[in-house]
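Service request form, structural biology core

Requester: graduate student, group of Dr. S.
Request type: structure prediction, single chain
Budget code: on file
Notes: please return the result as structure tokens.

Sequence provided:
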Amino acid sequence: MSDSKISRRGFLEKSTAITAGAAAATTLSAPAVLAQAPVTIKMQTSWPASDIWMDFARQYIERVEKMSGGRLKFELLPAGAVVGAFQVLDGVNDGVIDAAHTVPVYWYGKHKAASLFGTGPVFGGSATTMLAWFHQGGGKDFYRELTQEIMGLNVVGFYGFPMPAQPFGWFKNPVTKPAELQGFKYRTVGLAADLMQNLGLSVAQLPGGEIVPAMERGVIDAFEFNNPSSDLRFGSQDVAKHYILSSYHQASESFEFLFNKDVFDDLDDDLQAILEYGVEAASTANTAFALDNYSADLQKLQTEHGVTVHRTSKEILDAQLQAWDKIIPTLEADEFMKRVLDSQRQWVERVVYYELMNSPDLTLAYEHYFPGKLKL
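Core staff response, request fulfilled:
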């Protein structure tokens, strides 16, 4: 009995000493860890400083900085701070900037396949459907093949925030027939430019910050950008009063988070994971922020600025689909683009069948509780 007690007491004393020593070692090593300088990532966006999408980018970097425990810091810059809005891919590839918050359609001029990652033909899938294709349907591998193998770019990219379908745009007078579009000087980007040209419009591809000045100078007489909040901040309501929502020209876009591959590869594995999966965290935050702001700003455009909101006519939507039918064969002449489009069609055929069959009629429910509000 006595020996047993002494043994247990001795064991406890030794354990306490070991624990105390470990705690002391931890205390001594902590300052060395905290003293490590954070890695600073210079990220430029493709958006003006005042645009709501700068807020979207901030939601991303706030989450990444917190998840990294301060080991990652960002210097966030607006379009034009280092390179132009359409030149961020070059900036990241060349190492002039470390990262970019942009959309792939902005480098469509380098390879038309860029537009397939968000602003390509609409087979029936929403932005959420097509972001799922990127993550689960093979899109991520196609994107890596395009950027790193076909184009030889020194970049790594991730996708997040499935954007609501973009409005048809701002017009000085309402349009309801395809014939009424003939001769319009219209701003859009990417394959949407091919689409609109097929409908008889003359297209100028301009960054967001240049749109309203171009409208004021008469360089364009109709335009789209993306959403009510950006459009309100641009001052779109000052140059046109008819806002037409719903279109197939850019119905499935997401943000592109670009990183210089050397910068990314030099990071510890956990920091790489934080940069990648931080996109998924920001995607949820961006979606909630967008639905709140876009809907409130749409009301503000109507009630405070005298804007009349319309929905694109079925005739124009049908004409857009017919135009896509003409464009798709020209894209499929490129072997890589054909593989991407085949993959997207197969994904949409299966996934959207489920989505449409499973979805209740939300219009019916909305009209039941808010009768007379919708003017379709």
